[in-house]
Amino acid sequence: TGSGPGPTSHRKPAGAGAGGECHSRARTRRGGKQLVPAMDFQALLPLLLLASGATLLMLQIAWIRNPGLTGALAAVILVLAGLSSRFAAEAAPLQVTPLLLADRYALLFCTLFCLAGAVTALLSRDYVSRGDEPEEFFLLLVLATMGACVLAYAVHVASLLLGLELLSVSLYTLIAYPNKSILPLEAAVKYLVLSGAASATAL
């Protein structure tokens, strides 16, 4: 009939060609509330797994302090998040709110970040054991990976800053390991000051 796109249509992501348009989906209303389609959760599956994994690590550290168990659990979480990108690719490209876009490039970089984080978790177990409270190192590693994945998904300045801050704040502490040496602590303080000045300038 020639009518224009409705209010629920989503913008086409840059670089999407034929067959690469965002999936349009109707949002069902029940009781005056918008329901989030299942495809949104599928597209954000790597981020959801990383967030759930970080919560699981917090609970595990609170109940059982075991660096070997925490490192192995963190590696498993990162590998599962990386592999879930294959399942999330079935819904891509998909605009999930104005903040995030799940396309092939976002999922590719998310997979690389997760696999690199898993390798780091496996190789750093002996290194962090020389300091106090090594379990938090693996929790911060998962959170830093999540921040990097949010940056890969970001298409808005708000999501860009959220992902950048999540990545940066985790790195502040990661740089300070092992915390029994003065040099890592000095490096962490310098990075904190430099990053704070850079964020203030960017804002």
Give the terminus-to-terminus CA distance.
46 Å
Q: Compute the number of helices.
A: 8
Largest sheet: 2 strands, antiparallel
Instruction: Supply Rg.
Output: 19 Å
- Low-confidence sequence ranges: 1-32
Mean pLDDT across every amino acid position? 79
Q: Write out the strand line-up for the largest beta sheet, numbering strands in chain order.
A: 1-2
Shape: globular
Strand content: under 5%
The amount of helix comes to 55-70%
Number of E-type strands: 4
Structural class: mainly alpha
Structure explained in plain terms:
The protein contains eight helices and four strands. Helix 4 packs antiparallel against helix 6 and helix 7 packs antiparallel against helix 8. The longest helix is centred in the middle third of the chain and has 22 residues. With 203 residues, it is mainly α.
